[in-house]
Amino acid sequence: MSASAVRLSVLDLCPIVQGSTPAQALRNAQALARHAENEGFQRYWVAEHHNMTGIASAATSVVMGYLAASTERIRIGSGGIMLPNHAPLQIAEQFGTLESLYPGRIDLGLGRAPGTDPATAAALRRGRADGEDFPEMLAELRALFAPSQPGQRLQAVPGAGLDIPIWLLGSSTYSAQLAGSLGLPFAFAGQFSPDYMYAALNAYRDHFQSSPDLQQPYFMLGINAYVAESTEQAQFLASSHQQAFLNLRRGQPGPLPPPVADIDSLWQPHERHMVLSTLAGTLMGDEATVANQLSDLLERTGVDELIVNCSIFDQALRRESYSRLQKVAAKL
Fold first, then answer.
1. Sign of the dihedral through C-alpha 302, 303, 306, 311
2. Which one Pfam family would you cite for this protein (predicted)?
3. Distance (Å, rounded) from C-alpha 187 to C-alpha 184?
């Protein structure tokens, strides 16, 4: 595909910055969603994480309703709902309600990981914690969205008969293969799992079978992006995300830290390698530098859409980074 054909969307973990509150993080998400809509982004997805003191989007469906009510055109979705944490009927009713209130604007992205630590996953799931029943849960959910039949005892109200696009999400090949075989769109978490990107891309395309939902494969790639006036400024801004990931791997998750000028003073060499390799799916620099990086990425992958995470401490600079990225993409 040509680089100019790529669509851009926003992935928001609703980060709570140091010294702030979950309430402010949600207001930041509202402001960013409005900004993304004005800048022409395709969709705005929020992610389900639990027991994380740096993330405010645990009640994902509730956050989506808040964002949909604050915008007019941009698609609002989950990136994703961790289906094994919920009863399929609950998700069908929640998303049926969202689609009823905001018709034609709701996406349901589904994952099978817990989205948290094992103890919290056990508290949420109260049953199997390995996600192996995900295909069965997915089939149950899709059946609940089908038009109701005479005599049907279990119905999602609202939900039954509504056209809500279902996406599968993944960071390996499992959901890529499943999405392909079912003819569903697939979103890959390249923002933290770049090593599996090509394997997942190939698995999805190789297993794809057309369906009433999708005639051709549709692959959306998650990336991180930091676009600023200079490459040095972009590297400085990205240090907040790098610190947060380092803290997570040290078992000390928390709010998003402010950026630092000398991040090398904060990590050991092996930690530096771990963080930078895990976050290798990142565009970073001034507009000219990112234009080259983006063009190369699209040439290598041919993906249909990019969904972009941008964990910047300063909210005005965060919005500016997204604007610069959209400007870069428009010129390719």
1. negative
2. Bac_luciferase
3. 10
Kindly give, in sequence order, each residue whose CB lies less than 8 Å from that of residue 166, ignoring residues fewer than 6 positions away.
Answer: 108, 109, 110, 138, 141, 142, 145, 184, 213
Helix (H) / strand (E) element for 182: namely helix 174-182
CA distances 75 to 8, 70, 95, Å, are: 12, 12, 13
For 127, the token pair is 């049953």
Rounded Cα distance, 215 and 223, in Å: 25
- Give the CATH number, domain containing residue 205: 3.20.20.30
- In the chain, how many domains are there? 1
- 318 within some domain: no
In a domain, 217, yes or no: yes
Cα 27 → chain centroid? 18
Residue 168 CA to residue 57 CA, distance in Å, equals 19
Query: Which domain covers residue 137, as residue numbers?
Result: 3-225+305-312
Q: Does residue 32 lie in a domain region?
A: yes
pLDDT at 2: 43
Question: Of 207, 150, 202, 140, which Cα lies nearest the Cα of 180?
Answer: 207
pTM of the model: 0.95
Task: For the chain, state the CA radius of gyration.
Answer: 19
Residue 117 falls inside a structural domain: yes
pLDDT tens readout for residues 169-195 = 999 999 999 999 999 999 999 999 999
Instruction: Specify the amino acid at residue 50.
Output: H
Q: Rounded CA gap, 17 and 240, in Å?
A: 9
d(C-alpha 111, C-alpha 82), whole Å:
5
